[in-house]
Structure formats: C-alpha cells, structure tokens
Write a structure and sequence with these properties.
This protein is mainly alpha-helical. Helix content is 67%, strand content 0%. The chain has helices spanning 4-8, 27-55, 63-81, 87-96, 106-119, 126-144, 148-167, 170-179, 193-211, 230-261, 267-284, 295-301, 306-325, 333-350, 356-372, 375-386, 392-403. α7 packs parallel to α9 (193-211) and α15 packs parallel to α17. This is Chloride channel protein.
C-alpha cells in the first residue's frame, strides 16, 4: 500500500521552497483530494435525485404521514449512529481545532441528510457534502503528517470541493469555503486560497463528467441587461428588503428553536414532530416541499398572485427554520435562494416595469448574505447559477443585505472569537 507521507517526500513532489513561483509540494494532493471529493459528491447528488424523484410521487394528504415517518427514521438514525453535527461545528473545528473533522460522524450525516433532503425537508445537500468532503481533507492531512496551516488548508480544500460540486462554480465554491468561516482574522486563511481553487477545479470536472450536468446555468433566468446608475440605488433598496426577510428568518428561527428545545426525550420525538409540521405545510403549499433546486425554476417561469407569493415566502421561511430546529439535516443556502426568488417575483408583481431577473437575483443574493454572512461568494455563485454576466449591482444588493442583517449570526460559531 502506498504511504502518502513517503510519497510527499519524493523528489518529484518536493519542490524548492526558496522559489516562490514554484508550485507547492502539496499541489498533487490538492488535486487528488478534489477528484475524490468530486466522485463522492456526484454519487451523493445522483442518489438524492433518484430518491427525490421517487418521493415526489407521494403527494396530497399522503405527504403528511410520509414526512412524519421520515422524521421518525431520521431521528432513529441519529439516535443509533450518533449526532452528526452541523455546519456550525465544522466552522468551530476549522477555527479552533486546527481543521480537524471527525470522520466517524459521516455515516450518520450521510444517511440522515439523504433522508431529510429526499423526503421533502427544506434543507439542501451543501452541509453534508461540506462536512464529509472536509473530513476527506482531514484524512489526507493526517496520512501526510501535516500540521498547522497545511493541515487546515487541506481540510478547507476538501470543503471547497463539496461546495463547488453542488454549485458548479470553482471560484465561488472556493471563496464560500473561506468566507463562511467569518473569522475576524480571516487573512490568516489566505494560504488556503490556492489549495481551495485547485481542489474545487478538479472536483468540478469530475462532477460534470459523472453527472453530465453541462456548463449551462442551473436556473434559466431571462438575461438581465444593465441599466444606468439607478440600478445601484435600486440594489441598495433591494438589499434592505432582503435583510428584512433575513430578520423574519432570524425571528422564526429563534421562536422555533425555543419551542422545540422544550420537547423532552430522545431526538426522534423532535424529528417526528418536525416531519408532521413539514408534511402539513407541504400538503397545503406543495412548493414549500424539498430544498428549492427544481422548484426555483417554477418560480422563474410561473405566474402567481401576490397573495400566494406572500404566503409562500412566510411558510417557506417557516419550513426552513422548522427543518433546521427539529434535527433534520441539510443546509440552507439553496432554500434561501428560493426565498429570494419568491420575494423578487412578489416585487415584480408590484413593479411590473422593472427588470424581473434583476429583482429576483438581487434578492436571492441579499437574503442569503443576510443569513449566511457571505456577500462576496454569494454573488460569484449566483453569477454562475443564473448566467449573470454583469454582477456588480447584485454585489451591491448582497453587501446591503449583509450590513443590514441581524448581528447575531444564524450559524452560531461565526460570531465566536478566537
């Protein structure tokens, strides 16, 4: 069996450290890590698509018992396989434990998140992908005998591979893996930029090869044609609207967290109740079911009343916060993009002379930045996901949403100091 530490010391890979223009001796392993992360992410994504397609055939009032039973199974998986943690734990480990992630949590995270996402929970696959591919980087670092920043960089490179595989943006995925850490000394992580880019790019190619996803945008928005300077003023106002939705999200999250924290007993009681609540909401408003990846195109292409869109925004927010506070597993980034698109569609109904794509994409950026505190990478990701070629006004909206957002972060460890 190949010893990675010995391979690292091979003359072919040990490049001169005196020449700053030479590639790192770890370059080879960042690329291999990206390939491994891309292979896993593609397999995980294809399984989610298959299970989601099967579960979507269960509709109407049958959604209630189906999601209730799914909640019970999710809780039983976590009870017997262990608490898999969430993205806040990943951030905590990157910042305070030098990048160490526990691979022992992967079975519980993989199984519970697969069931949560495919049965209809309002949470996406980015959290499990990031945790699992990050642990791959952790394994590489340990086998190579790395320490300090090299260890942390390898873990971050693994996280970036997971982000990129899902969002199809090597640049955005790498930046997201760094920006979500929200460290007040984030400059300390600049050494992880190149590792993250290398891992992201190789993961991206592998993911495309396995899934045949293609390079076209994920969501088919009509192209936004930039106007004049007033677009920047509108972007600031749209950022404020997005921040308002972020405040609503924050309030519902705190309310649901308080309510479900009062439920005694094992976690499966809480996840079962969460499944019941999510099933009832999905029965009444089917567009609140699932994490929004496919449903967002329905929002872009459809025509809805203002009353329906207002109700959808509230109940989708309620569904997302119920999902994350009852122990269901998954991430919130794509659900938040869905919320922003709904809000943009709502505003277009009020202001039909404005550019519809501009309203929707600005609000997608602002809502996500308000909650996840990632204005830069959010803008880059959306430019890839929507085919946007002029993203400066969207960046303004994203920054506006970020600065007007609640100071207490949704991801608790983003606010912790070293």
């Amino acid at each position: 069996m190949i010893n990675l530490a010995n391979l690292l010391r091979s003359p072919l890979l040990v490049l001169s450290r005196k020449n700053p223009f030479m590639l790192s001796r770890l370059t080879f392993f960042y690329v291999i890590l990206g390939i491994v992360g891309g292979l896993f992410s593609a397999a995980f994504w294809m399984l989610i698509e298959y299970l989601t397609h099967w579960a979507s055939n269960i509709s109407g009032i049958l959604t209630i018992p189906f999601m209730t039973v799914s909640g019970l199974l999710i809780g039983l998986i976590i009870h017997f396989l262990g608490e898999p943690g969430e993205i806040s734990l990943v951030i905590d480990n990157i910042r305070f434990r030098g990048g160490k992630l526990e691979a022992s949590q992967n079975p519980s995270m993989a199984l519970s998140s697969l069931l949560s996402i495919s049965s209809g929970g309002s949470a996406g696959p980015e959290a499990p992908l990031v945790q699992i591919t990050g642990s791959f980087g952790n394994w590489f670092a340990e086998k190579l005998g790395l320490t300090g920043e090299e260890y942390r960089s390898m873990t971050i490179a693994g996280m970036a591979a997971g982000f990129t595989s899902l969002f199809g943006s090597p640049l955005g995925g790498a930046l997201f893996a760094l920006e979500i850490l929200q460290h007040r000394h984030v400059v300390e992580y600049y050494k992880a930029l190149l590792p993250a880019f290398l891992s992201s790019t190789s993961a991206f190619f592998v993911f495309l090869w396995m899934t045949h996803a293609g390079l076209q945008p994920t969501w088919q928005f009509p192209q936004y044609v930039p106007g004049d300077i007033q677009d920047f003023l509108y972007a600031i106002l749209l950022g404020a609207v997005g921040a308002g939705i972020g405040w609503m999200f924050h309030g519902l999250f705190l309310t649901n967290r308080w309510f479900y924290s009062k439920i005694p007993g094992r976690i499966y009681w809480k996840t079962t109740l969460g499944g019941l609540v999510l099933g009832i909401i999905a029965w009444q408003i089917p567009l609140t079911r699932f994490f929004g990846h496919d449903q967002l195109n329905q929002i872009v292409e459809g025509r809805f009343t203002l009353v329906f869109l207002a109700g959808l925004i509230f109940w989708k927010t309620f569904a997302i916060t119920t999902t994350v506070t009852t122990g269901w597993r998954g991430g919130v980034i794509i659900p938040l993009f869905f919320l922003g698109a709904c809000a943009g569609k709502f505003l277009f109904g009020i202001l039909p002379t404005e550019n519809e794509s501009f309203l929707m994409i600005c609000l997608m950026a602002a809502v996500n930045s308000s909650v996840t505190k990632t204005p830069i990478s959010t803008t880059i990701l959306l430019s890839e996901l929507t085919g946007l070629y002029s993203f400066t006004p969207v960046l303004i909206a994203s920054l506006s949403g970020y600065f007007l957002s609640p100071k207490e972060p949704f991801i608790a460890t983003q606010g912790k100091e070293s």
